[in-house]
Design goal:
heterodimer, A: alpha/beta, five-stranded parallel sheet, 31% helix, globular, B: alpha/beta, seven-stranded mixed sheet, 8 helices
């Protein structure tokens, strides 16, 4: 048999129908639904008198709109309220498992999937959200879809897909002190750009990912879309199995042993080849800070904001000028001289327990700068509870950070957490696009420890130089 | 879904790389639970002042481009979020075609689902179209999906690739779900062999 990549093995195991030169019809093992990209899909089902084909493979959660404080009070945003009510109505009408903001299983859709053991190796997982690749960290093919496709999967449990090319992103070596998975993926995006992965399925390989925790792998896979790739994955190994074992929806007993055997066979065959290979040396990766308005506009923390004339084409120069103007920055200024107004620790990229521990380790016994507002938004109820058991909430509140309830929050500002026009953030989220965290808001993407360090100093600092 | 075969219309040249879906439609407008009313929200932050009045400099507010139906832009158009509200906003504004050197994958899929045609042309061809649209008053393109060709009556004849499956569905205005349900026996068979 011809050697296959992990991606090809997962793909081949899910083909319901294929025809030369056309997209394949693939079977979906897990469909995650949230309140923002689903209402029009449920309308479509209703209009055509269709049902959800597999309720047992579908789960819905409220995350994008939910407030992260004062949940006992009525929602102040009437439109958000209407959207959450629509989600509840649709779940009731179609008989769908749904976790509203008062459920102990509530959290950001990409945090609760792995945390509850629903996300498993070898699966095809879809969600109406571009950060679905997060679930690829366990060795699954997970990708974001649009609302019409949400409707399609609800009705058929299948999806049409044109087979992407394969890309290996290999990072060997050992990460330096203070360098996190977030810095690795930002460095990757900085290298290949926002379009480097378009049309590709990424597999992250090399010693850095083998040695990385599951949560770190989730951070990396999460941002595959920022490099243009809809899906990114890491081969399942002992780290994966240890993470999943005993989780609520993970297989148990004999089923577990059989599953592990099956999962271990998913890894890319030694002689398999990728269409594209990108390599980075771990030793070259420094803590990263984005300076512009897309995630590829990123630099090591010791760097200076670029000047437009450092770029070759007039189109690039124009794009840099536009980004600098939006960000209120001058070319040549030191990253570490940039003062921040708000620090956001959260999002499907960096809101898991390890992220909170890493941020708390920096904040412990210190005080945030007076000029800074700092928010910590755990990724799920379960993360919040774990953090509180460890006393992390105390560490944050004593340092002057706000401790909130779980949700997407300031990553995309659909709830009341947002930047004011011109306000500048250090954010552990995934997108620094114009207006992403609120109209006119200016976002710099960083790791959780770098965000906590910026909150304390009031400007960016190299986390490696702190005591 | 409306069928798409051939379209002739005025070009709106938005000469910008990396137009992400947050720019196309900001997240706070994704709270609507129906599919309509997104046209006036297209490019909201770029298009309107804080008081809601139009920003005179923005391309959609320039009178010479009013009534445009072919949006032409730079590489990596539609990167970022999976929000289908982005193609809805573009389509509901009145566009039938978006032309760029490259597209975000999810955005491109979402266009196909709605009968909005994404056309990938070489960067040089896109540059030519943008330059002509900026120079020639009322500059129009004809986009012929069946012939897979873009022409402008000024000598441009650019061909483009499209997945034959997507093309057929667009030309016939087919709904994917109806098509898939024709394969229900195959789905049943898959489910019975994969517990």
């Amino acid at each position: 048999m011809a050697p296959k990549t992990m991606f090809e093995k997962i793909w081949d195991a899910h083909v319901v129908r294929e025809e030369e030169g056309k997209p394949s019809l693939l079977y979906v093992d897990l469909h995650l639904v949230h309140e923002v990209t689903s209402p029009q899909a449920f309308d479509g089902l209703r209009l055509n008198n269709r049902r959800i084909r597999r309720l047992d493979k579908t789960v819905a959660v409220a995350d994008h709109n939910v407030p992260t404080n004062d949940r006992d009070k009525p929602l102040t945003d009437e439109v958000s309220k209407a959207q959450l009510e629509a989600m509840q109505r649709n779940a009731d009408e179609f008989g769908l498992e749904y976790h509203d903001m008062f459920s102990e299983k509530q959290g950001i859709v990409h945090v609760i999937g792995p945390e509850q053991g629903r996300t498993q190796p070898g699966m095809i997982i879809v969600c109406g959200d571009s950060h679905t690749a997060t679930h690829g960290a366990v060795g699954a093919m997970a990708f974001g879809i649009g609302t019409s496709e949400v409707e399609h999967v609800l009705a058929t449990q299948c999806i049409w897909q044109a087979k992407p090319k394969t890309m290996e992103i290999r990072v060997d070596g050992t990460l330096g002190f203070g360098v996190t998975p977030k810095d690795v993926i930002l460095a990757v995006i900085g290298k290949i750009g926002t379009s480097g992965g378009i049309g590709h399925a990424i597999e992250y390989t090399g010693s850095v990912f083998r040695e990385m925790s599951m949560e770190g792998r989730m951070t990396v896979c999460n941002m595959s879309i920022e490099a243009g790739a809809r899906t990114g994955m890491v081969a399942p190994d002992e780290t994966t199995f240890a993470y999943l074992k005993g989780r609520e929806y993970a297989p148990k007993g004999e089923d577990w042993d059989a599953a592990v055997e099956r999962w271990a066979a998913l890894r890319t065959d030694p002689d398999a080849t990728f269409d594209t290979v990108v390599t980075l040396d771990a030793a070259d990766i420094q803590p990263q800070v984005t300076w512009g308005t897309n995630p590829a506009q990123v630099l090591p923390v010791g760097g200076r904001v670029p000047k437009p004339d450092e770029f070759e084409s007039s189109q690039e120069q124009g794009a840099v000028e536009k980004a600098l103007a939006y960000m209120g920055l001058n070319g040549g200024e030191r990253i570490q001289d940039i003062a921040v107004d708000t620090v956001f620790i959260g999002s499907c990229t960096n809101s898991r327990i390890e992220d909170l521990r890493a941020a708390a380790a920096v904040a412990k016994g210190k005080q945030k700068a007076d000029s800074v507002r700092a928010l910590v938004v755990p990724g799920s109820w379960a993360v919040k509870q774990q953090a509180e058991e460890e006393g992390l909430d105390q560490v944050f509140t004593e340092a002057g950070f706000e401790w909130r309830d779980a949700g997407c929050s300031m990553c995309l500002a659909m709830n009341p957490d947002r930047l004011a026009p011109g306000e500048r953030s250090a954010s552990t989220s995934n997108r620094n696009f114009e207006g992403r965290q609120g109209p006119g808001g200016r976002t710099h993407l960083v790791s959780p420890p770098m965000a906590a360090a910026a909150a304390i100093a009031g400007h960016f600092v190299d986390v490696r130089e702190l005591n | 879904m409306d069928a798409f075969t051939k379209h002739t219309g005025k070009v709106v040249p938005y000469d910008m790389p990396n137009v992400d879906t947050d720019q196309i439609i900001p997240a706070r407008f994704l709270k609507k639970i129906d599919r309509v009313g997104f046209g006036e929200l297209l490019f909201y932050e770029l298009r309107y002042e804080e008081d809601g009045s139009p920003k005179p400099g923005f391309i959609l507010n320039q009178p010479q481009y009013a009534g445009g139906t072919v949006l032409v832009s730079g590489p990596q158009f539609g990167i970022g979020s999976s929000r289908e509200h982005a193609p809805w906003a573009i389509q509901q504004y009145g566009f039938r075609v978006v032309i760029a050197p490259s597209f975000g994958d999810i955005f491109r899929n979402n266009c196909y689902q709605n009968g909005l045609l994404p056309v990938m042309l070489d960067a040089a061809e896109v540059d030519t179209i943008i330059a002509r649209a900026q120079e020639i008053q009322g500059y129009e393109l004809t986009v012929d999906l069946e012939a897979q060709q873009v022409t402008d009556g000024h000598g441009l004849a650019a061909s483009f690739d499209i997945d034959p499956f997507r093309k057929e569905n667009l030309v016939r205005g087919l709904d994917d779900i109806g098509l898939t349900l024709q394969n229900e026996a195959a789905i049943d068979a898959f489910e019975s062999t994969h517990s």
